[in-house]
Each structure stands twice: as structure tokens, then as C-alpha cells.
Amino acid sequence: MNKKKKAVSYAKYGYIFSLPFIITFALFTLYPIIYTVIIGFTDLKGVGKTAFHFLTEDPFANFKAVLGAKTFWTALKNTFILWGVNFLPQILLALLLAALFTNTRNKVKGQGFFKVVFYMPNIITAATVSVLFASLFGYPMGPVNSLLRGIGILKEPFYFLNNKYAAKGIVSFIQFWMWYGYTMIILISGILGISPEIYESADIDGATDFQKFLYVTLPNLRTVLIYTLVTSLIGGLQMFDIPFLLVSKQGPNNATLTTSCFIYNQAFSGSYLYNKASAASIFMFILISIMSAFVFFLMRDKDEIAEKKLHKQVEKEMKAKMKAQKKGGMA
Question: Is the four-CA dihedral 230, 118, 86, 162 of positive or negative sign?
Fold first, then answer.
């Protein structure tokens, strides 16, 4: 008798290989998130204390305290300003470089070298960058001060990091400098994914490089641009390391205080108000989710949505006709 061979199921191996990630995610990401949400509704304070009580009389007392603090609104305003000032030139320069490096007519020599150079700031640690720029803009004998005095722009040393506008400008520039190379690589990948046949058709029609970029590249980069905008928005609203490390106590009049710095200060800088820090974190999570959803809605493909609606309408009409024919046949 021939024994039937049992079919081998490989699905279990997939679950086994995914177990390390699931366990790590549950321990170091999911649990902290759930715990943060919980203590946002408690009175947990202090160092080394684990006992807490839920706020039964007013569960949203921590949220009211955070939203009622002027410092929080200052931090939120600074966060949006710092993100906006660095993101706009970042995406424009990244688009320009991506279009330049993917141009088939005039190929740039040494593309690999330039891509590496532009991307390198992104792999330097924030602490290193902070030390570098603090030295460059040092007072009174920093290189920038010495240069500006040498060419006659400044008569006396200028304390850049003690001026709120200069401090904001430096932080925004650092964020732009560190991330435009990364954004450029993402956009180049998106452009290389566009079918070359579309560009060939545009060349046959006599389109210029600018017209191809405007009417071919940008529409086909919609998904990549959404990804870039959303990830930049999330990263920008979580901006922490550069403002915290570069400027002492976030500058004069909290000039470079961001929401992440505010949360850190609430939790660890002497106050140890874990409950209020958690409430601020939850608020920022909700804000980021709403803004990300708005970006997706704003940049949706309206033509594709209209086509889907038309397709559904045609399907409904066809089904209605088939039902009417069946009823007529039965009669």
C-alpha cells in the first residue's frame, strides 16, 4: 500500500520567524504606549514611585492643566514654526536635486559621490551636530563671529544662541541640512519608479524638462510626496534632540522650546510630573493623527475617486437591469 504523503504547511514557520519582532514590539513599544495612556488619567508623580490613583472626580484634569499652560502653547507654536521653516526649503531643494540627478538628457557626472555627500548629514548623531554648530556660532570667539567681524559685517561679537530669532533660524537650518539629503533619496527612488515610456512620449511631443517635471513627474510622485510630507510632519512635531542639545534651556524666552522638550521637562527636569507629561503626549498623538489624516485627504487622487464612483454606479445599473430582466422572464 502506498502511503499518502502529508502536505507540509510552511505557515507556522512564518509565525515562528515573526515572534521575535512581536515580543520586542509588545515589550518595548506597545506596553509603554498603553502605560502612558493610563497614567495620563492618574496622579502619578515623583521618582521611584509606582503607586498611583485614577482621577475619578475629573479624569481630564491633567489634560486641562496642560492645555491651560502658556508654556505648552508656546512650545506648540515654536514646533510648527521650526518645522515649517525647515520643511519648505527642504522639499523644494530635494525636488530640484532629484529632478537634476534623474534627468536623462543631461546626466550629472559623479552622481554617486554627490548623493553620498548630500545624505551624510543624516547619519551624523544629533549630539555631534549640536556640538559642531554650538562651536561654529560660539560667543565671543566662534568661527562665524570671527568671519563676520573680519569682513566688516559685525563690529562686536554677536551672541547667536542668546537671540530668539537667530536661535530659531539655526535650529531650522540644522534640521533642513540634516534631512534634505534623505528626502532627496526618497524622491529619486519615486522618480525612478515612473515608467520611462511616459517620458519618451513626452519627448516625442516636444515637452521641455520643466514641462515633464510639472506634468509627468509631480503627478506620478503623489504617493511618495504624501509619504514624505506625513513622515516629515510626524518627525517635525516630535522635534527634540537638536533644540534640546544645542540651546541651553531652549533659548531666551523659550525660543526653541518644542512640545517634545516640554514633555521631557515635565517628566524629568525637576518636576517629575509624569501624569501631565503623559497627557501632553496623548494630546500630541491625537493632533499628529488628525493632521496626517488631513494630509491624506488633501492630497487624495480626485480623478481616481471619481472613476471608482463611476464604476460603482455602472455596476449598480447593470445589477438593476439584470434584476429587471429576471423579473420580466419570470413573468
Answer: positive
Element (H, E) at 74: helix 70-101
What distance in Å separates the CA atoms of residue 326 and residue 183, rounded to the nearest whole number? 58
174's grid cell: 540644522
For the residues of 133-190, what is the DSSP string, one character each? HHHHT-TTT-HHHHHHHHTTS-SS---GGGSHHHHHHHHHHHHHHHHHHHHHHHHHHH
* Phi, psi of 160, rounded to the nearest 5 degrees: -60, -50
Answer for the pair 185, 147: CB distance below 8 angstroms, yes or no.
no
pLDDT digits (tens, 9 = 90+) for 275-309: 999 999 999 999 999 999 999 888 887 777 777 88
Instruction: Tell me the pLDDT tens digit for each residue of 61-71.
Output: 999 999 999 99
The 8-class DSSP code of residue 200 comes to H
Instruction: Give the burial class of 309: count Cβ atoms within 10 A of its Cβ; 0-12 exposed, 13-18 middle, 19 or more buried.
Output: exposed
For 281, residues 6+ apart whose C-beta sits below 8 A from its C-beta are 36, 40, 263
What percent of the chain has pLDDT above 70? Answer: 96
Backbone angles phi, psi at 7, to 5 degrees: -70, 130
308, three cell numbers: 471608482
Query: If you ran DSSP here, which 8-state letter would residue 270 be given?
Result: S
In angstroms, the Cα distances linking 82 to 120, 125, 239 are: 22, 19, 9
Residue scoring higher pLDDT (109 or 75): 75
b (16+ CB within 10 A) / e for 223-250: ebbbebbbebbeebbbbbbbbbbbbeeb
Cα(303)–Cα(121) distance, integer angstroms? 39
Q: Are 170 and 138 spatial neighbours (Cβ–Cβ below 8 Å)?
A: no
DSSP notation for 50-70: ----B-SS-TTHHHHHHHT-H
The mean predicted confidence, pLDDT, of the chain is 89
pLDDT tens, position by position, 168-219: 999 999 999 999 999 999 999 999 999 989 988 988 888 888 899 999 999 8
